[in-house]
Structure formats: structure tokens, C-alpha cells
Write a structure and sequence with these properties.
Radius of gyration: 16 Å
Shape: globular
CATH superfamily: Phosphoglycerate mutase-like
Number of strands: 6
Order of helices and strands: HHEHEHEHHEEEH
Number of helices: 7
Largest sheet: 6 strands, mixed
Number of domains: 1
Strand content: 5-15%
Helix content: 25-40%
């Protein structure tokens, strides 16, 4: 599916479609060559809650990773290494504590860069009007059109999208594989992979 800026099928219209353009094994082979964006939701975060006075620098005001979530994050990084999927550093992360911890456990804290833009995905679940929502989606689309450094893949640890908006719902530590076509030329969603699917592929190596 092509999602160019001049096409009706932009990020604003992608929604919650389930795309499986490639088999899992073909997907891993393609990822080993590079050129993709791996947009992953943070790991399970069921400790605490996002409070009305939420402050991004104060984890006590946010929902945080559970022990299961920490294990998921460690597994995610190990699976990508086991599958020999090249990742460009730094890995980008939303500034929420659950995202930063996910990225640090998966890839190491020295290889994580906080990018405030990804808070916008979280904001899509708030009370926005259609114009505000579309403005945020257009900002995100620009990022999804950016081609990674040759021979690598860009990992982003973000948030799930609301149903029928943007990339749609994403499971804990699930990954949407995006093939960018360059600024102004759109992008393609080529796979949606759960952590379980990635782990099975790694176990089969």
C-alpha cells in the first residue's frame, strides 16, 4: 500500500488495516538489508497510571513497565540481534518513562535518543478536533517518510495509535514495519509483527 502525500491513502487514512505483504521469513530477509523503520510500542506498562498532573520527567506521575514488560523489552533487543537485523543508533524514543526504559533495556541507555515528537501519538488519544488530529498525523508522516542510513533500520519506541487512526492499535512490544519512500513520496506498511512472532523466528534460526 502506497501512502504518498498526494494520495488519498495518507497516514490520516491508514487506520487499523492488517497488512501482510511479505511472509515472516521474507520480512526478516528484507530487514537484514536495511531501509525500514521499525515502529514499536513500548513493553507492558501496568504499574501506576498516567495522572492528570503527568510530568514527563517524573515517572511517579506515569504508567510504568511491569516486570513482564521489562522482560519483553530485553527479549525484543535480543531477538533483533539474534536475527541480525541492523539497527542505526541512536534508537528514538518517546520521552515517557515506559518508552525510555523499554528502549534502554532493549538496546542500552547509551544508544537511546529521546524525541519529543512521539508524544504526539499519545496525544491522539486525547480530546482533539479533526483539524488538530490531522496536523499531528501530517507531522508523523514526515518522520515515516525518512529513509534510514543505508544498510540499517531505524527503531522508534512509541505508543499505540487509537483505533482507525494512524497506524492503529499496536500490542505491547508489537512492531509496525514501515518502508519509507523519501520526503514527500510517502511510505508503505509492509508488516505488523507481534513480539511472539519475532521470538518464534529467532527460535527457528
Amino acid at each position: 500500500m502506497y501512502t504518498g502525500r498526494n494520495e488519498q491513502d495518507s497516514l490520516i487514512h491508514v487506520g487499523n488495516r492488517q497488512l501482510n505483504a511479505l511472509s515472516l521469513n521474507e520480512m526478516v530477509e528484507s530487514l537484514s538489508v536495511g531501509g525500514f523503520i521499525l515502529y514499536a510500542r513500548h513493553a507492558e506498562a501496568t504499574v501506576g497510571r498516567d495522572q492528570p498532573n503527568l510530568h514527563l520527567q517524573d515517572c511517579s506521575t506515569q504508567r510504568n513497565l511491569s516486570d513482564t514488560g521489562r522482560r519483553q523489552a530485553i527479549t525484543y533487543g535480543q531477538v533483533l540481534r539474534d536475527l541480525r537485523i541492523p539497527v542505526v543508533y541512536p534508537v528514538l524514543s518517546s520521552p515517557f518513562c515506559r518508552n525510555v526504559e523499554t528502549a534502554a533495556l532493549a538496546f542500552g541507555s547509551d544508544y537511546v535518543q529521546i524525541d519529543p515528537l512521539w508524544v504526539q501519538v499519545y496525544n491522539l488519544s486525547t480530546n482533539l478536533n479533526q483539524m488538530q488530529q490531522n496536523q499531528l498525523l501530517n507531522q508523523l508522516q514526515t518522520k515515516f517518510e525518512s529513509i534510514p542510513q543505508q544498510g540499517t533500520n531505524q527503531v522508534i519506541i512509541g505508543h499505540s495509535f487509537p483505533a482507525n487512526i494512524g497506524l492503529g492499535p499496536i500490542s505491547n512490544m508489537g512492531t509496525v514495519v514501515i518502508q519509507p519512500h523519501g520526503q514527500g513520496y510517502g511510505f508503505e506498511i509492509v508488516a505488523r509483527l507481534s513480539l511472539e512472532q519475532l521470538t518464534q523466528l529467532s527460535d527457528g534460526k
